[in-house]
Design brief:
By secondary structure, the chain is mainly alpha-helical. The chain has a single domain, classed as Orthogonal Bundle (Arc Repressor Mutant, subunit A). The chain contains 7 helices and 3 strands. α2 packs across α3. The longest helix has 16 residues. The protein is globular, with a radius of gyration of 17 Å. The chain starts with a helix and ends with a strand.
């Protein structure tokens, strides 16, 4: 029984990087101004992508959108970042859940905090997905991202730096 536990622990360590070699840019507080339409779109998105997560996780999800807007790798508007396709970047934009979103006070609190500059996610963090996504199959995009670009896990969401 003890050997089984040791093997399991060793296996888990090899699958999830414990440290990251990703450069950590200093995140200066950044305030954002958005239109009413952008505000509502961000509320709907964070409801769909992270409603069951903590405020910290929701803030980080939202910060990824702003990081993308500021990155040369993505479109430069909130709308275009959210609705970018080929491949689809945010599933709620294609599965109908964005139109059914019912944002709540917790989502608004997270968004308002990000708009005031309260999120400290580095500007090079451009991706997130649920921690249940398989990152253990060698050769897949998710595996490569997890091995080379993993930043942190907040609640049930993994965050990653830019492209491989």
């Amino acid at each position: 029984m003890v050997n089984d536990v040791v093997e399991e622990e060793t296996h888990n360590v090899s699958q999830t990087p414990q440290t990251t070699n990703i450069p950590q840019p200093t995140k200066q507080p950044q305030r954002y101004e958005v239109s009413k339409e952008e505000y509502n779109l961000l509320l709907d998105l964070v409801f769909c992508e992270g409603n069951t997560e903590s405020i910290e996780c929701q803030m980080s999800i939202l910060q990824v959108v702003f990081n993308r807007v500021e990155s040369d790798m993505f479109p430069n508007t909130i709308h275009d970042v959210v609705f970018q396709d080929n491949p689809t970047q945010f599933t709620p934009t294609v599965d109908g859940s964005l139109q059914r979103a019912k944002p709540n006070d917790k989502n608004k609190e997270a968004l308002d905090a990000v708009l005031k500059g309260d999120c400290e996610l580095p500007s090079n963090i451009l991706y997130f997905w649920a921690s249940w996504v398989d990152t253990t199959t060698p050769g897949t995009w998710f595996y490569k991202m997890h091995q080379q670009n993993f930043y942190t896990t907040i609640d049930h969401t993994n965050f990653y730096s830019g492209w491989l």
